[in-house]
Amino acid sequence: MRTEFRLSLAALAVAAIFWVLGSCGSDEPSAPTATPVPTPTPVSVEELLRIAGEATGALKTFHFRLNHEGGGTPLAPGLTVTEADGDVVSPGAISIDFAGTLGSFAVRSSLITIGDDSYMTNPLTDAWEGVPREVSPLGFFDPQKGIGSMMTSVLSPSIASLDEDEFVVTGDLPAEALRPLLGNSVEGTTVSVELTIDARTHFLNKAVLDGRVTAPEPDGVVRIITLSKFNEPMDIRPPE
C-alpha cells in the first residue's frame, strides 16, 4: 500500500510538471537575459504564437506556478492535484512543491529530479525517499510536445490586446493537444485559452485554460499557469 501511495504521488508531480515544462536547451544556465525578439509586422497571430513557442521553449531556466479554480486535475481515482510550483533547469533538473487531495485527505509533498534520479518527500513523515526511475518525470516528458506545441495548436487565435508590454492571445485548444501533458483527455472537446506573451522577449508569462480536459473532472475547471524568473541562475541539488 505504501508503494502504491508513493507512486501515485510521484505521478501527481509528473502531471504538474507536464503543464508547465517546455522544450529547453542543453547549455548551462546563464545570467538573466531578455533579448528582444522581432515582432511580425503587420502582426500575424499565428506567427506570433510560433515565435513565442520557440522563445519559451529555448529557456535554460524558469520558475512556474500552477493553480486551479473550481476543482483540480485528477490523475487517478481519488487523487487530484490542486497547486504546484517549482524551478526547471535544463537539461533535466526539476524541483517542485505540490499539494492536492487523496480521497478526503489533503496531501503536500516535494519532488526533485536530476537526470534519471528522482526523490520525493513522504507526506506522512516528511522524509526524502527515492522514486523509482520508471516514474521519473523526465521518463514521460517529450520536449518536442511541450509548451511550443501547445501554443501552435490554438484554434482560431485572435489578439485580445496588444501594447508595448505584452500581447494577450485568445482562442480554443483541442483537449487532445493536452494529451502529452495530462495523459487521457476528452476527445472532441476544446478548452478556451488565454495566453499572455511578453512583447519584448516573446516569453509566455501566463496561460489560462478554461474547460474540462480529462473525463473524471467536473465542468468549469480553470487552470492558471504562470512562468517567471526566465534564465535566472538556479541550482538544483539532490536532497541531503
Helix content bin:
10-25%
Overall body shape? globular
Radius of gyration: 18 Å
Largest sheet data: 12 strands, antiparallel
Return the CATH architecture: Clam
Count of domain modules: 1
Mean pLDDT: 78
Q: Could you say which structural class the secondary elements and strand pairing correspond to? A: alpha+beta
CATH class: Mainly Beta
Number of strands: 12
The low-confidence runs, each spanning 5 or more residues with pLDDT under 50, are 1-32, 139-144
Number of helices: 5
Strand content: 35-45%
Report the oligomer: single chain
- Provide the CATH topology: outer membrane lipoprotein receptor (LolB), chain A
Which series of helices and strands comes N to C? HHEEEEEEEHHEEHEEE
State the end-to-end CA separation. Answer: 26 Å
What does this protein look like?
It is a single chain. The chain has 240 residues and is an alpha+beta fold. Helix content is 19%, strand content 39%. The chain contains five helices and twelve strands. Strands 1, 2, 3, 4, 5, 6, 7, 8, 9, 10, 11 and 12 form a twelve-stranded antiparallel sheet that branches. Strand 4 (93-102) and strand 5 form a beta hairpin. It starts with a helix and ends in a 12-residue tail after the last strand. The model is unreliable at 1-32 and 139-144 (pLDDT under 50).
Keywords:
single chain; 240 residues; alpha+beta; outer membrane lipoprotein receptor (LolB), chain A; 12-stranded antiparallel β-sheet; 5 helices; 19% helix; 39% strand; globular; disordered N terminus
